[in-house]
Design a protein that fits this description.
5-stranded antiparallel beta sheet, 5 strands
Length: about 60
């Protein structure tokens, strides 16, 4: 399972991706969620080790909020 994390909190209620084999998948795709612009988002991969990405920015489209 792949989830978005912000301010140390994982959004496990709304996974970005799930149901894939973490040992066999070389890549996965998911839609960037509509969230407020901020620079402290992280991606968490749950599976074999619980990998955490470096922090990154998501910029919100002005029309989507």
């Amino acid at each position: 399972m792949v989830v978005l994390r912000k301010a140390g909190l994982e959004d496990i209620e709304h996974p970005l991706a799930s149901g894939f084999n973490v040992m066999k998948s070389h890549s996965i795709s998911f839609k960037v969620p509509s969230v407020p612009t901020n620079n402290d988002y992280e991606i968490v991969l749950f599976g074999d080790s619980g990998n955490l990405s470096p922090a990154f920015t998501i910029e919100c489209d002005e029309q989507s909020g």
